Amino acid sequence: MSVVTSGAFLTLHYRLCGPEGQAWIDTFADKPATLSLDGGQLSPALEACLMGMQEGERKIFELPAGVAFGEHDPDKVQWVARKLLVELGADVDALGEGDVIQFPSPHGDGAHIAGSVVALREDRSAWRFDFNHPLAGRATTFEVQLIVVL
Q1: What is the pLDDT of residue 110?
Q2: Which residue from 140, 147, 143 is spatially nearest to 20, judged by alpha carbons?
Q3: Contact status, residue 126 vs residue 81, Cβ threshold 8 Å
Q4: Do residues 143 and 24 make contact, with C-beta atoms less than 8 angstroms apart?
Q5: Reported pTM
Q6: Concatenated DSSP letters for the chain?
Q7: Within 13 A of 26's CA, how many CA atoms are on the CB side?
């Protein structure tokens, strides 16, 4: 039976829940996920939970606040001007609190970073975005059913 090690490719079902039990990601009702460890698809803390698991195994991990996605970083909450949002193709007339849009990574590597609207100026000249993971600084439950290790 194969065991999860660094760099392994995995097919698994998983559910990621916040402290109130709300599921942020849940593949159990749909197709399983396929991913490679050390590829940045999961946080290092979630990958560490998988190490040593065997094919067919199912586990639930309770991670304390701040462990799964780090602490909430106030520097990652920033105002973004209307002009930039328009340049990115955002529908600024419909953009409101709770909406999430993708921004190009500041590293210029072609990646994108999700930002969630947390506030907007009354005149709609700028929107305040939180670029932290939604579960940053929060306790997290990580449930896994490992199907295949390659």
Answers
A1: 81
A2: 140
A3: yes
A4: no
A5: 0.82
A6: --B--TT-EEEEEEEEE-TT--EEEE-TTSPPEEEETTTTSS-HHHHHHHTT-BTT-EEEEEE-TTTTT----GGGEEEEEHHHHHHTT--TTT--TT-EEEEE-TT-SS-EEEEEEEEE-TTSSEEEEE-S-TTTTS-EEEEEEEEEE-
A7: 9
Query: Which token pair is 128?
Result: 């305040």
The pair of structure tokens assigned to 142 is 């990580």
Contact in structure between 14 and 27 (CB atoms under 8 Å):
yes
- Return the CA Rg of the chain: 18
Neighbouring residues of 75: CB distance < 8 A, sequence distance ≥ 6: none
Average confidence score pLDDT of the chain: 94
User: Taking 90 as the threshold, does the pLDDT of residue 65 lie above it?
Assistant: yes
